[in-house]
């Protein structure tokens, strides 16, 4: 506020000074003009009085009347060689001064306005820097921060209230997510223990099964228990990702090794269906991130492809690297996605038209969350040959922790 008053005082002083200079210059010019004109008339009257004193009275009366004297006087002056460029009642410096003084006054006004606007710009820059620092301190948790130099106190107070409110809401949301993750961890622990016990019991029962039909029923129950354990683990991972408490390593690893690890759980299933699988272009490419969780994410995508690829089909993974990102393209020879499903493929618990009855709709969502956490993107679309295509890009910069 003090800087603003100072700037206003500079502007007002400049305007007042310019007006005073205009008035002073006008008065000086008027006075000098009257003096020079009177001196010129006095010189002419003195010349007439000396040369022809007997005609002085008539000349003065004629001068007062002023009828046609100017043209006649100009003609007489020219006859005797007194043109405008030869003789003048006004000194040479007077003309220069008459132009220089207003010019100087204009310069003073422009200089005053220049100083004022320069001050305003500096004030605006100073205010911006102060508000930026103010916001930074508040975001760091210094809620008792006060604006210095009273730079826009009303705006500063409004920003302070808004930022504090947003930060408190964010902290509450983070606490709620962390509580959810903790609750999910407790729940998963509670579920895993009886699920493991059930699995062990089923294994014992299978050994004691009296007939083949009972054994097959037990095998199906084991599959359901395994599905339940996988579902609980996926839900726990998603909740930890949402809460930002899932710790990911930042370590360089070989891309081909990670893809091979991701596909291992599905090798037997692909062999049973006669699916041809191949990886191209991954040799020599390295990524920086968490090997295990990247393998988990790609495993979920490959699992989706295996489930939707018919017998004797094929799944291809193509990789390419450039200075900006590494791209991995996973394509299968299935029937592709329904157009209605494409916008929702990575939504949590979404089950498309071709989903299996055991699908919970969280595999692709989990893969997307992990890939984005690793500073990547994933999209899906139908290929030109009609199959499904997943396009993953990992950008070459450090992952931003949340």
From TrEMBL:
Transmembrane region(s): 12-32, 92-117
Keyword Transferase among record annotations: yes
An example Gene Ontology molecular-function term: phosphorelay sensor kinase activity
Keyword field: Coiled coil, Kinase, Membrane, Phosphoprotein, Transferase, Transmembrane, Transmembrane helix, Two-component regulatory system
Pfam families in UniProt: HATPase_c, HisKA
GO biological process: cellular response to phosphate starvation
Catalytic activity reported: ATP + protein L-histidine = ADP + protein N-phospho-L-histidine
Predominant subcellular localization, coarse grouping: membrane
Compartments, as annotated in UniProt: Membrane
Positions of the Histidine kinase domain: 186-398
One GO CC term on file: plasma membrane
Coiled-coil residues: 163-190
EC number, UniProt record: 2.7.13.3
UniProt name for this protein: histidine kinase
Species this chain originates from: Parablautia intestinalis
């Amino acid at each position: 506020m003090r800087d603003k008053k100072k700037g206003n005082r500079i502007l007002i002083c400049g305007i007042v000074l310019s007006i005073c200079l205009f008035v002073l210059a006008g008065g000086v010019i008027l006075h000098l003009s009257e003096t020079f004109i009177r001196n010129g008339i006095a010189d002419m009257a003195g010349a007439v009085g000396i040369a022809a004193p007997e005609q002085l009275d008539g000349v003065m009366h004629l001068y007062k009347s002023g009828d046609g004297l100017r043209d006649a006087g100009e003609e007489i002056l020219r006859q005797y060689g007194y043109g405008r460029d030869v003789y003048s009642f006004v000194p040479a410096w007077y003309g220069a001064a008459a132009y220089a003084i207003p010019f100087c006054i204009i310069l003073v006004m422009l200089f005053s306005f220049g100083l004022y606007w320069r001050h305003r710009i500096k004030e605006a820059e100073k205010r911006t820097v102060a508000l930026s620092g103010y916001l930074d301190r508040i975001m760091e948790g210094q809620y008792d921060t006060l604006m210095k130099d009273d730079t826009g106190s009303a705006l500063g107070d409004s920003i302070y209230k808004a930022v504090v409110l947003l930060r408190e809401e964010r902290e509450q949301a983070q606490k709620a997510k962390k509580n959810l993750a903790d609750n999910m961890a407790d729940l998963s622990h509670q579920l895993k223990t009886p699920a493991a016990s059930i699995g062990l019991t089923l294994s014992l029962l299978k050994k004691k099964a009296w007939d083949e039909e009972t054994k097959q029923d037990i095998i199906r129950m084991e599959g359901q228990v395994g599905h339940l354990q996988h579902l609980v683990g996926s839900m726990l991972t998603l909740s930890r990702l949402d809460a930002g408490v899932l710790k990911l390593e930042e370590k360089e690893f070989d891309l081909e090794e990670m893809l091979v690890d991701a596909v291992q759980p599905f090798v037997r299933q692909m062999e049973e269906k006669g699916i041809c699988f191949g990886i191209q272009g991954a040799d020599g490419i390295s990524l920086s991130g968490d090997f295990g969780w990247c393998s988990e994410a790609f495993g979920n995508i490959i699992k989706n492809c295996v489930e939707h690829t018919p017998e004797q089909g094929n799944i291809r993974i193509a990789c390419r690297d450039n200075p900006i990102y590494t791209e991995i393209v996973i394509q299968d020879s299935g029937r592709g996605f329904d157009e209605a499903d494409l916008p929702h493929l990575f939504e949590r618990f979404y089950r498309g038209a071709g989903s299996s009855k055991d699908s919970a709709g969280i595999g692709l969502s989990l893969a997307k969350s992990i890939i984005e956490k690793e500073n990547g993107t994933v999209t899906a679309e139908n290929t030109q040959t009609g199959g499904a295509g997943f396009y993953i890009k990992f950008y070459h910069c450090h992952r931003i922790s949340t």
